[in-house]
Amino acid sequence: MARNIHDLLLRDQEVRIIGKKDIYPVCGYLRYLTKIVFLAYRTGALFPSIIKTEKHPVLYQRKINNYDFDCIKKNPYIRSLREVISNDTDRCMVLEWMGQDLKQVKKLEYKPRLLFLKIVARSVLKALTAFADMDGQGPGVHTGKNQDVDLKNILTHDPWGNNPVIKLADLGGLIPAGEMREQHLQSLSIRASEIWKGHALSPACDIWSLGVSLAHFISPKPLFGHVDLEFPVTVMSPEMSQAASSIAKIMQLIGPLARDEDPKYSEEFDAAEALVEVGAIPLSSLGDELMKCEVDRDCVDFIAYLLALDPEKRPTVEQALAHPWLNDTKVIQLMDFTFDIAQRPIEESTGG
């Protein structure tokens, strides 16, 4: 059984993890509250490595299995896995360190530059190309509660510098497209309209998630997801009210949703329509909300393009990459540099 690194650190004990590629002296936590993600410095390395231990065995193993795909291993826009350690003492993954996620960057009151936003969008789309065919096994979708295309899973190195690097992380939620689940996938705030309806997963879900993530990074307030209702709802459970308000925000921001949902979700949609009708959602249109954030109209149009309500009309990854807003020569040149960084020896790279 693997030792509990969290308990050892609490007792101020030295923790050295022995891998096949290196020795990793653990120096602290990356996220204390999770108690499973730690920092380790290797001798001679410029940056730390991330040590992630097992918490949920199924998700942990799925992450490891997903890194076995060549399409993921070779994609420079996905956070890399250095090695997997499984012995009598430790069971963990050693992952590339980046610095911050976009949620942390936003908390630092960082005013996003348009160039940085373009690099974020283009990098995530480049990462999503890895899931198009999964080495001949069909498309995958990077989704699952808290393990999806969200601000906390979009990592960045040097966001304030001239050459920011963006990579997608946390592959525990990567599952085959077309799957149907009894429970909704995707976190409340970035859940696509078709998933609220109970429809099958598709790569279009990831495009939606990217659109919401960009909107949330730009906006000082959360545009999508659960909000407090402005009138008493005594007949709804907390889960129902959260679902109804989240759906209502989509309707308020983007427009009416076709009522082709699975009948078991009809009550949520009825409640959402009622919220919009009585003016309980304190938002204007998506375009108007984003234009308040000091970004240009082309940026707003791009985000709206990603957030088409009908997944059949939502752009594919390739179509989104071809959008004029992203075809900025400077962005493409900087991302060529990002690619070169990812191919350097591990001691010289931007991540551990």
Write a short abstract of this structure.
This protein is of the alpha+beta class and 352 residues long. It is built from 13 helices and 11 strands. It has 2 domains: 5-97, Phosphorylase Kinase, domain 1; 100-223 and 283-339, Transferase(Phosphotransferase) domain 1 (Transferase(Phosphotransferase), domain 1, Orthogonal Bundle).
CATH superfamily of the largest domain, called what?
Transferase(Phosphotransferase) domain 1
Helix content: 25-40%
Uncertain spans: 340-352
Strand order of the largest sheet: 1-2-3-4-6-5
Distance between the termini: 27 Å
- Fraction in beta strands: 5-15%
Oligomer: single chain
Structural class: alpha+beta
**Got a strand count?**
11
Query: How large, in whole angstroms, is the Cα Rg?
Result: 21 Å
Mean pLDDT value: 87
CATH architecture of the largest domain: Orthogonal Bundle
Query: How large is the count of helical segments?
Result: 13
Shape verdict: globular
The CATH class of the largest domain: Mainly Alpha
Major sheet summary line: 6 strands, antiparallel
Supply the number of structural domains: 2
Protein name: CMGC protein kinase
Keywords: ATP-binding, Kinase, Nucleotide-binding, Serine/threonine-protein kinase, Transferase
InterPro entries: Kinase-like_dom_sf, Prot_kinase_dom, Ser_Thr_dual-spec_kinase
GO molecular function: ATP binding; protein serine/threonine kinase activity
